[in-house]
Amino acid sequence: MTRSLFIAALAVSSLVSIALPALAEETTSAVSVVRSQFTDKIDNRLPQGDASALAQGKPATYWAELNNPGEATEVTLVWKLDGREAARQSLEVGRSAHWRTWGICSTQKAHSIEVEVLDKEGHTLKTDSASL
Length: 132
Known about the structure:
- The protein is of the alpha+beta class.
- Helix content is about 20%, strand content about 50%.
- A hairpin with a 2-residue loop joins β5 and β6 (about 85-95).
- It is globular.
């Protein structure tokens, strides 16, 4: 009986030693949003201004700083105006702890705007909204 338990424990520890590094690698390769915001312009890859300028009918700019410890990938910005999807933009994301990117969409006289950031598999990373 003791020998059977020893063999079973050895088998389980072998499986755990194989599975845990693979699981850790999968977890650390996920893209995440570090910071994001609506802005009226970008200067030197940083947002200048805030969402207040959007009320003037200017195109909306959504800026995001992403952490991507894995291989290059992409995210998708889903733009919604007054609750309805208006546009989708795919943005490339390189390997970096502080990858900065942005998208622009016409506000078309909407009263509200929302951006949903999706990873390559379509999972929601972040959602932001503003009143115009």
